[in-house]
Amino acid sequence: MEDINGSSNAYSNCNFSMEPFIFTNQTNCSSPPWSHFPDFYFALPIVYSVICAVGLTGNTAVIYVILKAPKMKTVTNIFILNLAIADDLFTLVLPINIAEHMLNNWPFGGALCKVILSIDHCNIFSSLYFLTVMSIDRYLVVLATVRSQRLTHRTYRFAKTVSICVWVLVIIIVLPFTVFAGIYVSPDDAGNRTSCVLSFPSPERLWFKASRIYTLVLGFIIPVSTTCVLYSVMLYKLRNMQLGSNAKALDKAKKKATIMVFIVLALCLFCWTPFHLSTVVALTTDLSPTPLVIGISYFITCLSYANSCLNPFLYAFFDDSFRKAFRKILECGP
């Protein structure tokens, strides 16, 4: 998706909201950076299609397993379910992004433009927010185990309530992007091709920077800082506690879930950190659209998209219940 504003300033004319870098010397917004390098035109749809196929299959399987098997209805799994739903929603709209890329045009109308851009941005926030909630949950479980306490409020119903609250929060955060999303026709394009963009009011450059800082702070700095503090405190408490019966219980049942959440979080950070760090680059430097820079830009975008299809493999590898359920699906079918 592009972020293009109707100013005569080259910087504000050609901003690409879902791509990491902004190319300030680009003068024709109807021609995205990859149009000057045909290799990217053919490579990106292939990568996006693989992510779509793998992500849709894997996350749908996760959703099916959790909803179908009574033993899978746990507090941790309800958060995993919502994470899979968020990833599924994103992979469902990838074909439309592929079509826009191939056509170099947006023929789907203004309403669908707002929906697609909103889901694109929901993907930025929802993954880390649900992983932050999962980290808080694991912290409370470990803390209660160390103190030999029971978490009476930690129920399946409470987890569903928390999940609804997370979705409401994400929708509120994404709402400004929905408002600014719309159809843009470049005055420099003789073919009157349209783009689905974020069109900011004047001064466009200030609004653009504000949107990037807004995404960086709410979508990365706050959730990552929270999870880092939680896991640091958790590891400190585990290293300093006495190895009694509680520690043994933690090592058996709860340690596996804690490790799985940590690894899923680490994978998410691996996929999304370059995207958010590139925001700093976009705000502080002026980059020319060379093949190397464009290649890095699209690699970072593809890496962030790939996060939506990798989690099911982690569940199958680290969780026996998921592995058995996936195997049963493959053997017997739904």
TrEMBL record:
Topology within the bilayer: Multi-pass membrane protein
G-protein coupled receptors family 1 profile domain ranges (all copies): 58-315
TM region positions: 40-67, 79-98, 124-146, 158-185, 213-236, 257-275, 295-318
Protein name: G protein-coupled receptor 8
UniProt keyword Translocase present: no
Organism: Clupea harengus
Compartments in which it is found: Cell membrane
Pfam families to which the protein is assigned, alphabetical: 7tm_1
Gene Ontology cellular component list: neuron projection; plasma membrane
Chief place where the protein resides: membrane
Keywords per UniProt: Cell membrane, Disulfide bond, G-protein coupled receptor, Glycoprotein, Membrane, Receptor, Transducer, Transmembrane, Transmembrane helix
Cross-referenced InterPro entries: GPCR_Rhodpsn (IPR000276), GPCR_Rhodpsn_7TM (IPR017452)
Keyword Iron attributed: no
PROSITE patterns: G_PROTEIN_RECEP_F1_1, G_PROTEIN_RECEP_F1_2
GO biological process: neuropeptide signaling pathway
GO molecular function, one term: G protein-coupled receptor activity
